[in-house]
Design brief:
It is a single chain. By secondary structure, the chain is an alpha/beta fold. The chain contains eleven helices and twelve strands. The strands form two sheets. Strands 5-4-6-7-1-8-12-11-9-10 form a ten-stranded mixed sheet, sandwiched between helices. Strand 9, helix 8 and strand 10 form a beta-alpha-beta unit. Helix 7 crosses helix 8 and helix 10 crosses helix 11.
């Protein structure tokens, strides 16, 4: 199991983000819809051999028959449009790039090199100095946390001054719906199925001094980012053990002993992930919200795939701004995690930053 980033500096911060989901084409719009408990679940036309329509959480601005690549490209463009980059970025500074894409083993893949080239081209329209290379992560719903761990390591070692992480996926494309139906992940008679979703997120991570004038520009401080590998994962026969998620939570507790006020997860609604969290929770109660409440992706977005971590991190940071501080001088904390079908697990612990109020005022 990965030991994460040893000695992660608390001066690593999220300073900007852009999000696109079926609930909204921006972070502020998506968060407003999430707070209003809105959903964007629709019945598609019949897929594969089934005579029943599959329910999805899809972006209605996209045609239903649009392939996965094109859906992902459109959503990543909207997320980049929502991203507010500082004017100083790229002016001689070193910016690292990372992109979280679907895992090839999880159904029909995307042309990785072609998608990276397109994403980089769109980014250059807003940041001409962006030249790459782009580090690609393909660990399913946990991929964003692998990218976060990598970014925090680069920033801690001062190998760059900023990192831009993109994450995008669509399980609503026709070829993905047919795959999910063949795998028995949708329309299950026992109701233990998943709602295919889609979305995109992009975040800017920077090293920031703790001085008040600079800290005021921070959406959230990174207190820890950790990944691990679960031996008894979803796509195998052995009973679920929750070992990897327990390890992730334990390592985050070691980095920051503060209790999280919010827990946001990338769960799909399937019972396997509920059991995993239950075991990891019991082994790490001091880290968990009290009373224990969580916000899971499936309730509002369905299964976001590789986009899940970025979207849920963004929603969690905006929700932190609406919480009262647990004590004077003690900003609230957010715990976010995601688990992939092949056992990759990742999570991060975030501390609220004052700039998140700018987003919540818009929503």
């Amino acid at each position: 199991m990965s030991q994460g980033n040893q000695g992660l500096a608390t001066s690593i911060a999220v300073t900007s983000m852009g999000i696109c989901t079926p609930l909204g084409l921006s972070a502020a719009a998506t968060h407003a819809a999430l707070r209003a408990r809105l959903v964007s679940f629709w019945l598609t036309s019949s897929q594969g051999n089934s005579t029943d329509p599959i329910r999805v959480s899809s972006l209605t601005l996209l045609q239903e028959d649009l392939p996965r690549f094109e859906r992902m490209a459109a959503m990543s463009d909207w997320a980049l449009e929502d991203l507010k980059l500082p004017v100083s970025l790229g002016g001689g500074t070193r910016t690292a790039l990372a992109l979280v894409l679907p895992e090839g083993r999880d159904g029909p893949g995307v042309q990785v090199e072609e998608f990276v080239a397109r994403w980089l081209n769109e980014l250059r329209k807003r940041l001409p100095a962006a030249r790459g290379p782009v580090r690609v992560f393909q660990q399913g719903r946990s991929g964003f946390f692998f990218a976060m761990e990598h970014a925090a390591s680069l920033l801690s070692r001062r190998e760059c001054q900023e990192v831009i992480i993109g994450a995008v996926d669509s399980l609503c494309a026709p070829e993905m719906l047919r795959h999910l139906q063949r795998e028995g992940r949708v329309l299950r008679p026992d109701g233990n199925d998943t709602i295919p979703g889609e979305g995109a997120a992009v975040v800017l991570l920077e090293r920031r001094p703790s001085r008040e004038e600079k800290a005021s520009e921070v959406l959230g401080w990174v207190r820890g980012a950790v990944t691990a590998q679960e031996p008894h994962y979803f796509l195998q026969e052995a009973p679920n053990s929750g070992q990897a998620l327990s390890s992730v939570f334990r390592q985050l507790r070691e980095r920051c002993p503060e209790r999280a006020e919010l827990l946001y997860t990338c769960e799909t609604g399937e019972t396997f992930w509920v059991a995993e969290l239950s075991m990891a929770y019991l082994r790490n109660i001091p880290l968990m919200p009290e009373p224990f409440v969580r916000t899971l992706a499936a309730s509002s977005f369905g299964d976001l795939g590789a986009a899940a971590g970025g979207v849920m991190l963004g929603m969690g940071l905006l929700s932190l701004a609406r919480l009262r501080h647990p004590a004077p001088g003690a900003p609230p904390h957010l715990l976010v995690y995601g688990s992939a079908d092949h056992g990759q697990v990742g999570g991060c612990l975030m501390q609220a930053g004052p700039m998140s109020r700018r987003f919540t005022e818009l929503s």
